[in-house]
Design goal:
The chain is α/β, with parallel strands linked by helices. It contains 17 helices and 14 strands. The protein has 3 domains: 57 residues, no CATH class; 129 residues, Alpha-Beta Complex (Aspartate Aminotransferase, domain 1), CATH 3.90.1150; 245 residues, 3-Layer(aba) Sandwich (Aspartate Aminotransferase, domain 2), CATH 3.40.640.10. The longest helix has 16 residues.
């Protein structure tokens, strides 16, 4: 009588007792390890693998960490790639995250033992970085900063509408600034969710100061100036700088989006907080995870009394940032040059030299190319760059590797753009490409594939 081989499948407790499997429990938790064990045992029952291969298959299938996120090398040439988490944090910010992950003095004064001001270090660092701001505040993202301002200045609360006879307060905004950004997110819908009414002025391509002035009335809560994201309008156009609207008798809010705190020579057309504030704009909103190079956060900078009003608004509590964000933001502002700025300011000749070195190590070709800022910043601006060109089939294989690399497919080749790769990661990039080359040595390289392109579009 033949013994059923399924009887030799090791029991769950026996697999869990294997030292390699037991070690994984401390990393990813017993429940996740057990799920992998049960799945592999079922594969053995189905005859896909032999009973003797169960433990090895479990070890191979164990997740690397308790979280599903995986580290990825961004070789797309898009410095702030939304699909890849935008700004990579500096080493100082990462260290700050580890510290903040434990028990910290986020709201405790260690000298007095009493309650301390939440995030005092981060707020102080932001105030020092933008000395033209009388007050600063931080919320959980750029949209949150804008919705807090819109709610406080023009929201639908009945008590705040008493001066208009109960009518909804209005936000005056140029038609050409009614933008839609990623994932179908539309600015008008966000603003209207506060209970405010939008008063559009001008035309799609042109707006003047007189258009704004004619729209101002008793119901006006604020004028909003929005920096368009991801597009440029060219030709017969005109717009009004936010500073020229400050004399119309109502608060002006400038949403600069990208988080550039001061002018940058590489991005002369990108609005920055310092310039707007010096022009007299009472409130500037921006993102922390774009050109600032920090964690996801929404920045509010401007008139001290106005910022204090927003900080004390009931909605501010719901938009409050956690200790991890505060720690990473402070370290970004106080610490060394963050990766985003290093990538933006990378020397073209240095990029070419790196490309030649990497190409020689992996059998590719060093080529000139153009990178992008990304993240809705500096639309239309090309950053001279250098890349390693490989057969197009590498794009898909590199994404599926043990250490994923995301490049872009251009003119039938996979380009690994080094402007969005830090020099310290070049060896890691070489290792990832070589691993794919070994796999391709026994299989032809696919001729057609696709790869993530700027801001997540496929090509």
């Amino acid at each position: 009588m033949t013994t059923d081989p399924r009887r030799r499948i090791p029991r769950t407790d026996a697999v869990l007792a294997d030292p390699r499997v037991a070690a994984a429990v401390a990393v990813v938790g017993k429940a996740r390890v057990k799920d992998v064990v049960l799945a592999v045992q079922q594969r053995a029952r189905d005859g896909e693998i032999g009973p003797d291969a169960v433990v090895d298959a479990v070890v191979t299938g164990l997740p690397r960490s308790a979280a599903s996120l995986r580290p990825v090398l961004n070789a797309t040439g898009v410095v702030l790639h939304t699909n890849l988490g935008r700004a990579p944090l500096s080493g100082a910010a990462r260290d700050a995250l580890v510290t903040a992950a434990g028990t910290t003095d986020v709201e405790l004064d260690l000298v007095t033992g009493g309650r301390g001001k939440r995030g005092a270090g981060a707020m102080g660092a932001l105030a020092d970085a933008v000395p033209d701001a009388g007050g600063v505040h931080v919320v959980n993202n750029g949209a949150a900063a804008l919705i807090l301002a819109a709610t406080a200045l023009a929201g639908g609360d009945a008590a705040e509408r008493s001066s208009t006879g109960g009518a909804r307060r209005e936000i005056v905004i140029a038609r050409g600034e009614m933008v839609e950004i990623g994932d179908g997110f539309r600015l008008p819908e966000l603003l209207e969710s506060t209970g405010a009414r939008l008063r559009e002025v001008g035309t799609t391509n042109r707006v003047r100061v007189d258009d704004y002035a004619a729209a101002i009335g008793p119901a006006t809560g604020m004028i909003l100036k929005v920096h368009p994201s991801n597009f440029v309008v060219q030709g017969f156009t005109s717009s009004v700088p936010a500073g020229e609207l400050t004399g119309l008798g109502v608060p002006v809010v400038a949403d600069i989006g990208s988080g550039l705190l001061a002018p940058h020579p590489l991005l002369p057309d990108e609005p920055d907080a310092a310039t707007e504030l010096r022009a007299g704009v009472p409130l500037v909103t921006a993102s922390g995870d774009k050109l600032l190079g920090g964690p996801q956060a929404g920045l509010l900078l401007g008139d001290a009394e106005l910022v204090h009003r927003l900080r004390r608004h009931p909605l501010a509590r719901a938009l409050r940032v956690d200790k991890l964000t505060l720690a990473a933001l402070e370290a970004t502002l106080r610490g060394p040059v963050p990766p985003v700025r290093a990538m933006l300011e990378a020397d073209r000749d240095a990029l070419r030299a790196r490309a030649r070195t990497v190409a020689a190590a992996v059998g590719g070709e060093a080529v000139d190319c153009a990178a992008q800022v990304g993240g809705g910043g500096a639309p239309g601006v090309d950053l001279p760059s250098a890349a390693v060109a490989l057969p197009a089939g590498y794009a898909e294989a590199l994404r599926a590797g043990d250490d994923p690399v995301v490049g872009r497919v251009e003119q039938g080749r996979c380009l690994l753009d080094l402007r969005s790769v830090l020099p310290v990661d070049d060896d890691r990039l070489v290792a990832a490409v070589r691993a794919v080359t070994v796999r391709f040595s026994s299989h032809p390289v696919p001729a057609v594939t696709h790869c993530l392109h700027p801001e997540g579009a496929s090509s």
